[in-house]
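Open question from group meeting: does this chain pack into something compact, or does most of it stay loose? Before anyone orders reagents, we agreed to write out a predicted structure and look at it together. Recording both the input and the output here so the notebook holds the full record.
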Amino acid sequence: MLRSVFHQQLEQAAEHIQELGNNTLMQLDRAIDGFEQGDDSQIDEIIKNDASINKNELDLNERVFDIIARQQPVASDLRMVIVVMKIAGDLERVADLAVDMAKVSRRLTHYETAGVRDELVQLAKDARQMVAQALVAYQNKDVLAAQQLARLDDEIDERFGRFIKKLFRQEVKEQDVEMITQLAFIARYVERIADYATNLSEWIIYEANGQHFDLN
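Structure tokens returned:
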């Protein structure tokens, strides 16, 4: 009976992870749109919704603590519970980075160089896709799919490095230096989002085999 209740509670917690993940992806979509189109209404919405994401993470943590207190899981059961809490924490940090992107986007007013914004938007969309793929891998308990995200993270790291070099090697007017710095901040946030997607993969692998691998 207790084990049946445990799995029911765990299943509910996993459903809340997907809900938190979907909200986080929505925040990323708004951040990317806000940056791409300079839409301040999207940016305002991101900042407004951040409190809700933070509350979702806290609620999930309370669920985890309640499961541990009442069910006292061990071994693989305990790993599943811990992974819920870890993934919730990483998703909340991804949502925070979406807020950071939005705030910096608001400061971008006039600077534009052919291809720079488009390249950064594509990088952000690919990092966002990594988070989406990690959520699917978690839902399906797909360790192979989780492992493949490490390769995508390497690609994002390489493109991030190339983008930063390109950004700071071009000839710019003095008044554009601040704008270039802000673009570099956004690129750094995007690179960190890909890192967190890889962290999600690490927790999926840990849940499956009990070993933690550093894929970053």
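Observations to bring back to the group:
The radius of gyration is 19 Å.
Helices lie at 2-37, 40-71, 75-107, 116-140, 143-169, 177-209.
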